[in-house]
Write a structure and sequence with these properties.
heterodimer; A: 678 residues; mainly alpha; two-stranded antiparallel sheet; B: 83 residues; two-stranded antiparallel ribbon; 3 helices; 5% strand
Chain lengths: 678, 83
């Protein structure tokens, strides 16, 4: 059987063997007292030097190798590379946590991020491959003609990809700072180095082969902890099969706990706290000065009596920490009010679909669920860094097959994520709820130290009620090894997996941004006569500039970065999807139509996001432009309007303008003939 | 005038259309009724939850597999084999 494998398959089998042996050695060393910090370093060094090695071996100065890996990537490996390209730090670390927190509602991500590949397979991949150039703007430029559409496409690609790449580098910083205890900023630049070692020297070719290696690490790292946890809890090591039973137990526990009297009391206490903050906000600025006076009176009173010094110091600190002005007070109290109100809400059953007290509320949940699925599927089928991967296969048929492999490899992770969430929930409901706070398992305290878990005994009964516990979504995947009582080497493995997920996605995104700038803008528009050598020089310098820019932004720790990533789907979807699909399937679509549709789609999405999400831009001094969402749809699903508007605009404008006779030839070529004849 | 290319295109377009409709039903149709079908229990899961967490995903994989299979046949019939 071994002999029947291709050379590449054998290489990667050796590589996987090496990696597993490496883990085994570390596990043994840990038994002999190797400190956790060194295990973290060992994982970091081993994986990044592996990637660097692949990057150096694959270095290239050939344009086709640099942009599309010489179109020699077999379907199977392209599927793996796409898997790593696709699954980002958010999928690896955040998804299971989102599913834990929102239960059924979180499954919109699972459906959306996999369903999109059906659209890629049926509507886009084969045609892009038959066209056989280098970028998505290339395709739009050739289909509709003219530089305007190319420029709009470049702008949209950069807009969608840049935020995304910043989020990946940010993720690298978080992982390295947590597991290897590097400083966040240093972690960001270590990540930057990890990204540059492969993309700088070898472009798409090196990125592809590194991504295959990264996929193997990330999938092993993702499945191992939950498989062990599943074995511990159910005796079956295949979590995807057995978590249905665990889910039933979770539902029973929920039934019992949700109506528990202490739980009800705690929620009532949080409601009162939220009301208190609401009152204080209403009475600004008097409430702030009142609070200040009260505290200073207390301090004076204490000073007058012979109170202990440390009580006075504590009160003085409280006084100093008071908001400085009403503006700050409002912001701080509002967030405290929202978090208290959030905790006062009755919890939701994990498996309940579209939870809500009234049929209207349930309907809003349902509409938002479907809208989010729509945006994520269409966005998946429109993100340029995924689509360009289908330029790299040798034939059209292999492009089709590689979408199948992509989805299969991606499925492995997305089918596991809900199991993670259910096992974690079972653990929390059975081993955390109603337990004296002093007797909680060790992992709770460990993660509370880093701020990812917080516990507040609001009713002061010394026992943990569910509403008193708050978990950061990231903690689910990161803490599972400890929950299952596994040695630190497994935690190191999870960190290496998260790192692989973030680096591989960042590689793909950076390459997309760079090729948009150097290939589409510089070569196609400004200097069509540039020599190939010079084109590569431009590409590589662009790559360096964009990478450093992204790392610099990430080092500022932008707080809203994660929600910005979900907007990238809406923006990419409304910019590219209608223009690509109509361009392939509707001969009558014209340049003017596509241009108008793309602009309308992008602008409408951005307009909706801005007006729903923000109310003011302090920097520009404008405020009060917030609006009520249309049909109750959240800003993360802005693409619903953008995509539909894009389709409608392209159709209407195309019907009003004259079609280009050249488009018929173009379509005949991408629909039937093979790539070599084009 | 109808060329071989046109026939090939018409047939692959029909296949694409049918599969996309099927995909729409699975993705949005089933999901719309998730609350109702959650009453049914399958492998220990409520059906609505199961469809969203596993069922739909496997169906997606099968849609792509079927499409590839049919397109391979079509390619062979029209002599578009490339390798």
């Amino acid at each position: 059987m071994f002999a029947s494998l291709s050379r590449l398959q054998r290489y990667y089998l050796y590589y996987t063997g090496c990696f597993l042996a490496f883990i085994g050695v570390l596990a043994v060393l840990e038994q002999h007292g190797m400190p956790p910090r060194w295990i973290g370093y060992a994982f970091l060094c081993f994986t990044i030097s592996m990637y660097a090695l692949i990057g150096i071996v694959c270095r290239t100065s050939d344009v086709s190798e640099y942009y599309v890996a010489g179109r020699r990537v077999p379907a199977f490996f392209n599927g793996m590379a796409t898997g790593a390209d696709w699954m980002s730090a958010a999928s690896f670390i955040g998804l299971a946590g989102t599913l834990y927190l929102s239960g059924f509602q979180g499954l919109a991500y699972v459906i959306g991020w996999t369903g999109g590949f059906v659209l890629v397979a049926l509507l886009l991949a084969p045609y892009l491959r038959r066209f056989g150039q280098y970028t998505i703007p290339d395709f739009l430029g050739a289909r509709y003609g003219g530089n305007a559409i190319r420029l709009v496409a470049v702008a949209a690609a950069i807009l969608a990809s840049f935020v995304y790449v910043v989020a990946q580098i940010y993720g690298v910083g978080v992982i390295t700072s947590r597991f290897v205890s590097l400083q966040f900023e240093i972690g960001v630049f270590v990540g930057l180095a990890g990204i540059l070692v492969c993309s700088f020297l070898g472009g798409m070719r090196a990125v592809t082969w590194t991504q295959v290696a990264q996929y193997l690490i990330l999938i092993v790292a993702y499945i191992t902890p939950v498989a062990i946890l599943s074995y511990n809890q159910t005796g079956n090591p295949v979590p995807q099969l057995v978590y249905g039973q665990v889910l039933q137990q979770v539902t029973q526990l929920e039934d019992r706990l949700f109506q528990n009297k202490d739980e009800l009391d705690v929620r009532q206490l949080y409601r009162e706290r939220a009301d208190l903050y609401a009152q204080k906000i209403m009475q600004l600025p008097q409430s702030l000065s009142f609070e200040r006076d009260q505290l200073s009176a207390q301090i004076n009173q204490l000073k007058a009596s012979d109170a202990q010094m440390k009580d006075i110091v504590a009160l003085e600190r409280q006084y100093r920490d008071l908001p400085h002005d009403p503006e700050q007070a409002r912001a701080r109290w509002e967030s405290a009010m929202f978090s208290a109100a959030e905790r006062s809400k009755p919890p939701i059953h994990h498996a309940e679909a579209f939870p809500g007290d009234t049929p209207e509320e349930q309907n809003i949940m349902r509409i938002n669920f479907l809208a989010l699925i729509f945006c994520l599927t269409v966005g998946t089928a429109a993100l340029p860094h995924v689509l360009i991967r289908y330029y790299t296969t040798p034939t059209v048929r292999q492009a089709r097959e590689s979408v199948f492999w992509s989805l299969l490899f991606i499925l492995l992770l997305y089918i596991t994520a809900p199991a993670y969430a259910v096992f974690a929930k079972y653990e929390v409901l059975s081993h955390l709820a109603e337990i004296p706070i002093a007797k909680l398992p060790g992992w709770v305290a460990a993660w509370a130290k880093v701020g990812l878990v917080s516990i507040e005994d609001i009713n002061a009964d010394g026992i943990l009620q569910l509403a008193e516990l708050s978990l950061n979504p990231d903690v689910i995947v990161l803490a599972t090894p400890e929950i299952a009582g596994m040695p630190y080497v497994v935690s190191g493995l999870v960190a290496a997996g998260g790192l692989a997920a973030a680096l591989s996605t960042a590689d793909g995104l950076l390459l997309t941004i760079t090729s948009s700038l150097s290939h589409d803008v510089y070569y196609r528009i400004f200097r069509p006569d540039a020599s190939t050598q010079f084109r590569l020089v431009i590409s590589k310098s662009m790559l360096l500039v964009v990478a450093i820019l992204a790392a610099t932004v990430a080092a500022q720790k932008p707080g809203t970065i994660l929600s910005m990533v979900s907007w990238a789907f809406s923006i990419a979807g409304s910019a590219f999807f209608p223009a690509l699909v109509l361009g392939i399937f509707w001969e009558r679509a014209t340049r003017e139509g596509a241009l108008a549709g793309m602009l309308v789609g992008i602008c409408l999405s951005i307009y909706y996001i801005i007006r729903v999400e923000f109310d003011s831009v302090p920097l520009l001094g404008i405020s009060g432009f917030g609006m009520e969402p249309w049909f109750h749809i959240q800003s993360t699903s802005a693409g619903v309007f953008g995509v539909v508007a894009g389709f409608v605009t392209i159709i209407l404008v195309s019907l009003m303008t004259r079609s280009d006779p050249r488009s018929a030839n173009f379509l005949r070529a991408i629909r039937f003939r093979s790539g070599e004849e084009l | 005038m109808t060329t071989t290319g046109d026939i090939y295109w018409r047939r692959s377009r029909r296949l694409t259309f049918i599969l996309i409709v099927f995909w729409l039903i699975v993705t949005f149709g089933f999901t719309w009724f998730a609350r109702n079908i959650n009453e049914i229990i399958i492998f220990g899961f409520p059906l609505g939850f199961y469809m969203a967490a596993q069922g739909a995903l496997v169906i997606y994989l099968m849609i792509i597999w079927w499409y590839n299979r049919q397109m391979k046949k079509l390619d062979a019939e029209f002599g578009v084999e490339e390798d």
